[in-house]
Amino acid sequence: MGEKVRRVLVLHGPNLNWLGKREPHIYGVTTLAEINELICNKAKALGLEADCFQSNHEGALIDAVQQADGRYECLIINPAAFTHYSFALRDALAAVSLPVIEVHLSNIYSREEFRRHSVIAPVVVGQISGFGSASYLLALEAAAVLLRKEGDKGGGEK
């Protein structure tokens, strides 16, 4: 019997649907559709399966986080502006029983003061920022390592 394919959910927060148009000097010219394609190709190369979802609505992202529990083995999220103030999204991420990796296209710590604080960071396994679209690919690499380590433990509960 073949090994179970590990599933990863990638969530994109508000305004990321405008990538390629919005402040390209900060976020680059790669579109969200192109990033999603890169994510799916990288996931496949790592032996993972990735699903991607974007919303400009906090509640839709919270619903996606809650629905991911038990359906996915890892969650990667770019909370975008919600990074800095969404305690509701933070609480949803803290409540799920799967590892969460936070990503950002830009280095939030080198930007405006209000962007330098993440309310999400304390409830995630790690954070990758500042590498443009490669931030997502690095997060997938990290997810593969995390899931491999989890599998090495015999697949038991956390």
TrEMBL record:
EC numbers for this chain: 4.2.1.10
Catalytic activity: 3-dehydroquinate = 3-dehydroshikimate + H2O
UniProt-listed Pfam families: DHquinase_II (PF01220)
One annotated GO biological process: amino acid biosynthetic process
Gene Ontology molecular function: 3-dehydroquinate dehydratase activity
UniProt KW Amino-acid biosynthesis keyword: yes
Keywords: Amino-acid biosynthesis, Aromatic amino acid biosynthesis, Lyase
SUPFAM superfamilies named in the record: Type II 3-dehydroquinate dehydratase
InterPro entries, per the entry: DHquinase_II, DHquinase_II_CS, DHquinase_II_sf
Record site feature (Transition state stabilizer), residues: R22
Catalytic residue list: Y27 (proton acceptor), H104 (proton donor)
Pathway: Metabolic intermediate biosynthesis; chorismate biosynthesis; chorismate from D-erythrose 4-phosphate and phosphoenolpyruvate: step 3/7
Binding site for substrate: N78, H84, D91, L105, S106, R115
Subunit structure: Homododecamer.
Family from the record: Belongs to the type-II 3-dehydroquinase family.
Function summary: Catalyzes a trans-dehydration via an enolate intermediate.
Protein name (record): 3-dehydroquinate dehydratase
Organism field: Sporolituus thermophilus DSM 23256
Gene: aroQ
